[in-house]
Amino acid sequence: MIRIVFALLLVVSQSLPAAEEEKTLSLQLPPASLEKWYRPANERDVWLHTMFRLRREMQAVAEYAALEDKVRLQKWLARLQKDYLSIGDMVPEWKDELEDGLLKKMRLAADSGDAEALARAQKKLRKSCQSCHVEYKLVAALRYRAPDFSAVKVESEETLDEEEYSRVMARLSLLLNRVKIAGEDGRQQAAMDALDQLEQRLSDLGESCSTCHKKERSREIILGQEARTSLAQVRKGLEAGDDKQTGRYLGEFAVGVCADCHAIHRLQSSMRRLLSDD
Ligand code: HEC
Ligand code: HEC
Ligand code: HEC
Questions:
Q1: CA of 258 to the centre of ligand 3 (A)
Q2: Cβ(219) – ligand 2 distance below 6 Å
Q3: Contact yes or no for 165/150 (Cβ under 8 A)
Q4: Are 277 and 29 in contact (CB under 8 A)?
Q5: Whose CA is nearest to atom 30 of ligand 2?
Q6: Is 59 in the pocket of ligand 3 (CB under 6 A)?
Q7: Ligand nearest to the CA of 258
Q8: Which of 37, 39, 159, 196 fits as disulfide partner to 47, beta carbons 3.0 to 4.6 Å?
Q9: Cβ of 224 below 6 Å from ligand 2
Q10: Which ligand is nearest to the CA of 102?
Q11: What is the CA radius of gyration of the chain?
Q12: In this structure, are residues 213 and 225 in contact, taking their beta carbons and an 8 Å threshold?
């Protein structure tokens, strides 16, 4: 009997993936009014700080309820109520989603010292926090808080032109591959020219990090001594006509500079772009 059930399960589980091929995932964008509560529209990320306070207030309420400390419990409940209701003031589209009745229940329960009723209502409130989070938390964080590279311009030291990030990136990729192709095919001069340009473009790119990074350190991590050493070794390889040396250090450079910076910045930037409808 058990075996039959097991065999059946196996059939069902094997047929599932086929039925579920072509899954689509849809993401819900938050109401436009949320943007006002983030930089640069606001001086601070007011929304996020309200959320941090809500978490703290939920914790304090649970802790003082357990300690049966009525006075402090009331204090934190009042704060929780105020911040929770401010969600609807900030984003009117979300007003109807709020469960203000639960807050009233919690205060009544606190008044009458009914710890169980308080805990029940708080559990429901937590669910209401979660139901909004499931839908909007990730999207809002990416859209309003991921660094915005679409606004960053890179100035060319040679021509003084300002270029879009995506153009600069396309150029870097082209030059990197040109060094590789020309180097491999023994076109030494073409490879050297491309390498010169690559170094110039990287230096231009490096100047633009300060748009967001006030400290030199972040630039140095990616575009510092290690990157310079790799490219110096590439140059040596080209001069000596040593393919292996060129390839090895070009690869080292591509990982330490391009891939490492992409791991930090590119995915977030792409997600932000995807989620910004303009
Ligand atoms: C109507 C929607 C909504 C409701 C209700 C809501 N939140 Fe949020 N919350 C958000 C959004 C959107 C974010 C993402 C903000 C961001 O990352 O910039 C967020 C983020 C947070 C974060 C930050 C999470 C992190 O990544 O560290 C905390 C903590 C939080 N909420 C707590 C709460 C608590 C506690 C409640 C209920 C008492 C609550 N929220 C109710 C929309 C909501
Ligand atoms: C549009 C703003 C922006 C630009 C431009 C930018 N960064 Fe960042 N960078 C950030 C933010 C914000 C963080 C913090 C982590 C996060 O949220 O992604 C960060 C994190 C980093 C980190 C990891 C944290 C650290 O400092 O150790 C490195 C390394 C880094 N950036 C390097 C660079 C380099 C190199 C450039 C220029 C080529 C650059 N960034 C350009 C916004 C930016
Ligand atoms: C700030 C650190 C940083 C460094 C260093 C960096 N990139 Fe990028 N790259 C990005 C970001 C951010 C994007 C996404 C830009 C966007 O969203 O428009 C990107 C996108 C790209 C793209 C896609 C362009 C497009 O719009 O389709 C290519 C290709 C690329 N990078 C190549 C390179 C190569 C090659 C190097 C190394 C020589 C490099 N990148 C170094 C941050 C970096």
A1: 7
A2: yes
A3: yes
A4: yes
A5: 218
A6: no
A7: 3
A8: 37
A9: no
A10: 1
A11: 28
A12: no
- For residue 202 and ligand 2, the question of a CB distance below 6 A is answered with no
170 lines ligand 3 (CB under 6 A): yes
Nearest to 172 by CA among 273, 104, 250, 265: 250
Say how far residue 221 (Cα) sits from the centre of its chain.
20
Find where tokens 């639960």 sit.
102
**CA 231 to centroid of chain Cα atoms:** 30
- Positive or negative CA dihedral for 136, 138, 142, 146? positive
Least Cα distance to 31 among 47, 13, 19, 42 occurs for 47
Nearest CA to ligand 2 atom 22: 218
Cβ-based neighbour number of residue 177 at 10 Å: 13
**Is the beta carbon of 209 within 6 A of some atom in ligand 2?**
yes
Residues 18 and 25: their CA atoms lie apart, in Å, by 17
Is residue 154 within 8 A of residue 79, CB to CB? The reply is no
Residue 113 has a CB neighbour count (10 Å cut-off) of 12
Burial grade of 1 (CB within 10 A; 0-12, 13-18, 19 or more): exposed
